[in-house]
Specification:
With 482 residues, the protein is α+β, with helices and mostly antiparallel strands. Helix content is 40%, strand content 20%. The protein contains 17 helices and 15 strands. The strands form four sheets. It has an eight-stranded mixed beta sheet with strand order 5-6-9-1-10-11-12-13. The protein has a three-stranded antiparallel beta sheet with strand order 4-3-14, with no helix packed on it. A two-stranded antiparallel sheet has the order 2-15. It is elongated and about 95 Å long. The model has no long low-confidence stretch (mean pLDDT 94). Bound molecules: adenosine-5'-diphosphate (ADP) and magnesium ion (MG). The site of adenosine-5'-diphosphate (ADP) has 16 residues, from strand 1, strand 9 and strand 10.
Length: 482
């Protein structure tokens, strides 16, 4: 049977585990601080010792409700914690406490803009609270596995999407939007390296036009956007190949190996009845009142998509720019702080934040929060550009010096004599000299070879050390060469 990629549709549903940014664990007072000495932050409750009693941390409820309200989800007035029974070395108590049949957050919608500008409304099936398990450490000991239980009992909000995503790229757009959202809501620190935001991707394929979903495989725990995309793309191609050759996809859990860029079977899929879920007898049903929900609704911050619209409306930014600037809360805040202190236009300011600044941050592997150039300092530099004190080219030089020395734009411009030459008498004199010294090029230009114009501009810039006002140079040259 011959088959190619365009005969198939892919379907993706995501389960995202968001670590909630509480100081203490979901059912105990132990610290959730990342990076402590292994096994120094797991107490008897986290380990499920006989006779202990879990007590729900109320902050996690408020956080889950904040999230639910932000995606217009139904909030359940009553939700229930169950025990999910299974054995694994990082879960010594033999069960995980998780909301199962009655999650706190029901059906909602996440608005997503894809990389190529399409607007999606992705259904969120549910979001439920649960405790994290410990961690197996495979690299620390030679041919042995270590167990660190510090993570046991860290609160998680698991956010489950409908199987509505149709490509790896769209899945990543959804993840980035969700990541931005939980950071805006300040319910998660968003740290991907530390595992604060982890994703399982369910992937299936079906023949184009087939209304029935295909059998899915679930790729576990990928914690970088780039790897999620690669893992899904690999898995789609693998399933198409299996089906094209007459085989069938097995419902199973697979692991993504980033070094080899492939997914590998980990275990066949368990069914819910393998876990023997039952309501945790130590925890009462969780009851939340409408009054309390309404109270939380009044404290919601501006959400990423609201800010995106505001940036377009208030500053005339394009949807693309507004989307980039709101994809990360700190980036948008930086932009607005710079804009508040500058004479430059919103568009110029946005260009510098998304261009020069982001490029240098990326190059040095820094985040906007740790930028060596503050929003205030960038705003000042751009003011010098806006009022023609310096040219765009010089601004880039000054920007790099600011990055290296931490000095302000004014200090650098003054010390190095970089002020733009805007005086037309001075510029005319330079231009006259250049025209006089290059009769051949003048003749060429006048005979219609307009590209010689760039040569004259270059000469003026050379003579003035790059400081001539480019717009003025263009105007004067045109006039004199005509
Ligand atoms: P579990 O993984 O715990 O069995 P579900 O059956 O509810 O839970 O599914 C979890 C995720 O799998 C959801 O995000 C859902 O959208 C997605 N999903 C379900 N069926 C498919 C399918 N055929 N193809 C792709 N994703 C799917
Ligand atoms: Mg699952």
């Amino acid at each position: 049977m011959t088959s190619n990629l365009s005969d198939w549709d892919s379907v993706i549903g995501l389960e995202v585990h968001v670590q909630l940014a509480t100081r203490t664990k979901i059912f105990s007072g132990a610290s959730t601080q990342y990076g402590a000495k292994p096994n120094s932050q797991a107490c008897a409750v986290d380990l499920g010792f006989p006779g202990v009693l879990p007590v729900l941390n109320h902050e996690v409820l408020a956080m889950a409700v904040r999230f639910g309200l932000s995606i217009n989800a139904h909030i359940a007035h009553q939700s229930i914690f169950a025990r999910k029974n299974y054995f694994y070395p990082d879960l010594p108590k033999g069960y995980q406490i998780t909301q199962y049949e009655h999650p706190i957050v029901g059906r909602g919608t996440l608005p997503v803009i894809t990389e190529d500008g399409r607007k999606l409304e992705i259904g969120v099936t549910r979001a439920h609270l649960e405790e994290d398990a410990g961690k197996s450490l495979h690299d620390a000991f030679n041919s042995m596995t270590g167990i660190d239980l510090n993570r046991a009992g860290v609160p998680l909000l698991e956010i489950v999407s409908e199987p509505e995503l149709r490509s790896a790229k769209d899945a990543v757009a959804y993840l980035k939007t969700l990541h931005a959202l939980v950071c805006y809501l300040q319910i998660c620190d968003g740290n991907l390296q530390e595992g604060s935001f982890r994703c399982d991707a369910n992937v299936s394929v079906r023949k184009k036009g087939d209304p029935k979903l295909g059998t899915r495989a679930e790729i576990k725990n990928v914690n970088s956007f780039r790897f999620v995309e690669k893992a899904i793309d690999y898995e789609i191609a693998r399933q198409i190949e299996v089906l094209s050759e007459g085989g069938s996809v097995v419902q199973e859990t697979r692991l993504y190996d980033s070094a080899k860029n492939e997914t590998r079977s980990m275990r066949s899929k368990e069914n819910a009845n393998d876990y023997r879920y039952f309501p945790d007898p130590d925890l009462l049903p969780v009851v939340v009142s409408q009054t309390w929900i309404d109270e939380i609704a009044t404290t919601l911050p501006e959400l990423p998509w609201q800010k995106r619209e505001r940036l377009q409306k208030d500053y005339g930014l394009s949807e693309y720019d507004a989307n980039v600037l709101t994809s990360n809360k700190a980036l948008g805040d930086y932009f607005e702080a710079a804009l508040e202190r500058t004479k430059a236009s919103p568009k110029i300011t946005a260009n510098w934040v998304m261009g020069e600044l982001s490029a240098l941050l990326n190059k040095h592997n820094l985040s906007i929060e740790t930028s060596p150039i503050s929003a205030l300092a960038l705003g000042e530099l751009l003011s010098h550009l806006a009022d023609n004190t310096i040219s765009g080219k010089i601004a880039k030089t000054v920007f790099e010096k600011m990055w290296e020395t931490g000095e302000s734009a004014s200090v650098i411009i003054e010390r190095e004599g970089l002020v733009q030459e805007n005086d037309s008498a001075t510029l005319e004199k330079v231009i006259d000299e250049i025209i006089h010294a290059n009769p051949a090029q003048v003749a060429e230009y006048r005979s219609g070879k307009e590209r010689v114009f760039g040569y004259f501009v270059g000469q003026v810039m050379k003579q003035t050390g790059g400081k001539a006002n480019p717009a003025q140079v263009n105007g004067l040259l045109k006039k004199k060469l005509a």
